[in-house]
Amino acid sequence: MKNNGYSDYTIELTDKALIRLGKHADLEKPETVKQFIASLQISDGYKKNLCLAYNKYCDYYNIKWEMPSYKQQRKIVRIPTKEQVEMLIANARATMSLKLSISKETGLRPVELSNLKVRDIDLEQRLIYPTTAKHGAPRKLKISTSTKTMLQRHIDQKKLTPKDNLFKGNAENYSKYYRQMRNNLAEKLGKPELRTIRLYDLRHYFATMLYARTRDILLVKQQLGHKKIETTLIYTQLINLNDDEWTCRTAATVKQSTELIEAGFEYVTEQDGFKLFRKRK
């Protein structure tokens, strides 16, 4: 797979799938593999991934088998609230809090965030230039001033050079330690609903909020690094156009207007000498 250009992330997932299959079925006997996969109480999407991993094994060893037809079922993803996301960020330790802030503000996949190098960050412009996973389009992503400050502190404290990875560990480590932090926080605060928030949901949160703010599906597609617009269109289904709640602000000066725009507010109209702005909650 390495020689054929597959990413380390894909190779790692394939390796794990084959190890799991090999523990419960004879990889030299396709029917036992089929039977084991069929018996699993998991989604068809995950069964399909197991089949794809075994398919690579069969291709390499010239084993004939007929791959079962499992299709991933599309469903509407649940988006965490702004309050829940901010609660997770506020209660995490410094490095995890920084990672979650970047995930929230950029929609980076966990593997993309884990692969970031210091040289991918333009602190002066507050931009991140990630290496896009899944052969998606290249992109640049804006971060907030507060996240920039956290990043600068992290780089200085760790004495990182431009060639260094921004964070230690891989996407699996990021997910593992996030789940531990999330579950501990849910128990501490008596909020079991926090346990349902997956790390990938921060990517969904970013995409949904970006579409809600801009109504520009092509921009969302570009910012997520998707190859197909069909993948991005799911986020149009997560916005209720008839039930929006807004935070409203007024501005009397250019400075106030600038501050509101930088905070994500959009101009609506002018009345009694004041400019009116709004932003979805």
How are the elements arranged and paired?
Layout: H1 8-24, H2 30-39, H3 44-61, H4 82-91, H5 94-106, H6 110-114, E1 121-122, E2 127-128, E3 141-142, H7 145-158, H8 171-189, H9 201-214, H10 217-224, H11 229-232, E4 246-251, H12 254-262, E5 266-271, E6 274-280
Antiparallel strand pairs: 1-2, 2-3, 4-6, 5-6
Describe this protein's structure.
The chain is mostly helical and 281 residues long. The chain folds into three domains: 8-61, no CATH class; 82-238, hpI Integrase, Chain A (Orthogonal Bundle), CATH 1.10.443.10; 246-280, no CATH class. 50% of the residues lie in helices and 9% in strands. It contains twelve helices and six strands. A three-stranded antiparallel beta sheet has the order 1-2-3, with no helix packed on it. Strands 4-6-5 form a three-stranded antiparallel beta sheet, covered by helices on one side. A hairpin with a 4-residue loop joins β1 (121-122) and β2 (127-128). α1 (8-24) packs across α3, α2 (30-39) packs antiparallel against α3 and α4 packs antiparallel against α5. The radius of gyration is 22 Å and the shape is elongated. The model has no long low-confidence stretch (mean pLDDT 89).
